[in-house]
Amino acid sequence: MSDARRVLLVGATGLVGTRVMEQCMGRDDLRLIALTRREAPMPQGARMEMLVADPAEWDRAIASIAPDAVICALGTTWRKAGKDEAAFRAVDEELVLSVAKAAKAAGVNNFVLVSSAGADPSSRARYLRIKGQVEASLRKLRFHRLDILRPGLLRGPRRSDRRVGERAAIVLSPLANLFLRGARRHLRAIDARLVARAALQAAKEKARGSFVHDYDALRRLELRLDGPA
Fold it and tell me: Which of 13, 35, 62, 148 has its CB surrounded by the most CB atoms within 10 Å?
């Protein structure tokens, strides 16, 4: 365990964060520490730490943890933000960048962001535009390695109820994926477990650079998690 890579997870209460905790169970190569603003249930039998702190104190918490890598799965929805852009940006932009800057100051080598398919700072869609702006800001921090994961619709059970339209989209997603080909293939729905596995593998990578992973790249990345060291 002394050689285990210390991975800090922020956003543990969301769908991908929950799957990251589950996928990390039983691994000796990774030591997971979750940083949250409120208590969150951990998978039964999980060997990990969870620190609860106000986001205003997260910079000090990150400095004290001194992780090797950070997986940032923070995010809200337009509806949960009360359809208020400032409230949405407070989480998806300001809090994400605050975590990233604290990680950079703490000497973190790997930063992994769970973003969104279609993220583009020039997008006409507010959600995708903000996601793209955050990605651009992260690149300016010049981490040793930055991995940006861009999944499409995430499949998997959530603790909170989904809207009717979203539930219907998930049910129909296997059929819809068949029609998402070529330039639209990156929009395919994907199981949150695969995204979590890709995030964990990205946290282990040593090559320097900035990398973007869409649907196919996510699938390739997660397959390497249990491959040869």
Answer: 62
